[in-house]
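Exercise 3.2. Students should predict the tertiary structure of the chain below and write it as structure tokens, then compare their answer with the key that follows.

Predict this chain's 3D structure.
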Amino acid sequence: MNAIEQFLYDILSGINSLVGNYGVAIIIFTMLMRLIIMPFDYKSRKGMRKMALIQPKINELQKKYGKDQQKLQQKQAELMKKEGYNPLSGCLPLLLTWPIMFAMFAAMRAIANEQMAMQTFRYLAGETDIIAAADRFLWVKNIWMADSLFASIAPNAQALNMIPANMWQRAYEMLSEGQLQAVTESIAAVSETVLDFSTTDAVKTSVTSMITALGQMPGYVEAVATVPGWTGLNFFLFSITLYKQYNGLLILPVLAGVSQVLQYKFNPALNENQQPQQGNAQSNGMNNFMKYFFPILSVFWCLTSNAGFAVYWVTSTIAMWIQSVIITKILEKQDARKALSESVSGEGSIK
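Answer key:
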């Protein structure tokens, strides 16, 4: 992890140490990140609102100088200078937040991988209380697995093979002497492999041995047991398996889709920038497509990701909507004061 990712990792871990639950910690962490990003969002919204206000004037220029592109560009530049509008003001502020967002995702992914590795070691150590209180969240039994009837409460082989070597090494170094001895004994019972997470090939060998050893652990076998007749069923483009100890109730994926629908319906920012434009069927068609595409995509992401990500996604969507309402109110008040000031100034010049 780079410095920013490590910093955000430490913040999320620190919040969890205070509240004792990763689900609550992710909610607090998400709200904190939205507060940090809010000034950039405000700048972007202000620029987009300014563009929406001068768009009718730009349309008039296009009608008037549409056949003379050089003249049109000159007049548009003069208009934007007069109105004090910078074409980059709508997108540049948000682009500046992308490194923060990517670092945040990386930090959350690192914690998820680390915790799944730790749970695996606990199974191998023969512990009974595998899923700690910090890993449970409301109806979700293990926040590092998907909130779904079709996800087990324990990491499966596919999930274990996707954990990076450095996360395995970090989790391995966090083991107590008693845990380390128990894990070593479990591995030795099925293989002569010595756990090594220093290289990609070594990780593959070690994980293969661990998966074999997990098959001998009653607690793990029970955690990933499937319902007879419900293994690998093909459903449209998906293959689904129903587990006896399923991890969730599909509530977070549904909330993700519903929150996206409500955001598109009631978000002031989207209403400002996605109004139907007469004669622009392509733009209107794209707007309608996005209204349905993003909710479906959100459900898919939350079904195929761990519940921690789903908690973030739902929280972030709701926070963005609230933030948008607040910013809209602020901009409306600013526009009202500006209009009043210009009105008074105009009256004074007439006199």
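Discussion points: Residues 22-65 form the longest helix (44 residues). The chain is about 70% helix and 0% strand.
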